[in-house]
# Entry
Amino acid sequence: VQLVESGGGSVQAGGSLRLSCAASGYTGRSYCMGWFRQVPGKEREVVAILISGGLTKYGDSVKGRFTISTDTAGNIPNLQMNSLKSEDTAMYYCGISPQYQWGGSCRAMATAAYWGRGTQVTVSS
# Structure
């Protein structure tokens, strides 16, 4: 499985970015998919998870500002980031895991079995 993120960059506070993830090497639709981020010295955290049937889950700090796409046709969902803040500065990763690793419910997804190399997002205040 290969995942390649794109769309990161440097923006001013209040700006927007849209992250995408190109995936190859996996088949089937029984995967949990999501976006995570990490800053040096801290654990990787959940940003947004696509659960199923249009349901989504977000980290508390991004609710109302970030949107994970739900119309994916089995592809890795994009992440639209609006009203960016300096504290959103991080390396952003897309990740996928087989659903069975989360008991069949992507709502429980807290990490991923497969990761991309990440795309840097830097927000200046």
